[in-house]
Amino acid sequence: MDTSQSHLLLKRPVTVKAIVTPRWKEETQQQLQTQLNQVDNQLQQLEMQGQRMIAEIQKQTIQPPGPQTAQQMENVQLQVNQRKNELLEQKKYDASAVESGANARTQPRSRPGAN
Question: pTM value?
């Protein structure tokens, strides 16, 4: 066995303690809010793309739509819904991070030599 390519990976939970300053908290909340807004925009774009795709399928088919066309439209809707669920989960995670950040206790930072 070639020991130069050997790896040992240990996983262990680690508690990280940090002083949350008001400035850091505000910056973090702004970043998370920006992420939430981006997810909202992605959801809107996804919805519009899905509607356009279904409308395009409907335009290209004869009326009434056959089973193959209905299946295509259903597949598009399923894909849209799946991606929507992923984005909503991400949004829920980001929103909980914003909320937990709002509940974090902030401590004023002491100046060096202020004691």
Answer: 0.58
In tens, the pLDDT along 71-112 reads 888 898 899 999 999 988 888 887 787 777 655 544 444 444
Instruction: Tell me if 89 sits within 8 A of 74, measured CB to CB.
Output: no
| Cα dihedral sign, 93-94-96-97 | positive
Q: Which two tokens stand for residue 74?
A: 């259903």
Residue with tokens 């130069």: 4
Q: What distance in Å separates the CA atoms of residue 78 and residue 96, rounded to the nearest whole number? A: 27
Would you call 39 exposed, middle or buried from its count of C-beta atoms within 10 A (0-12, 13-18, 19+)?
buried
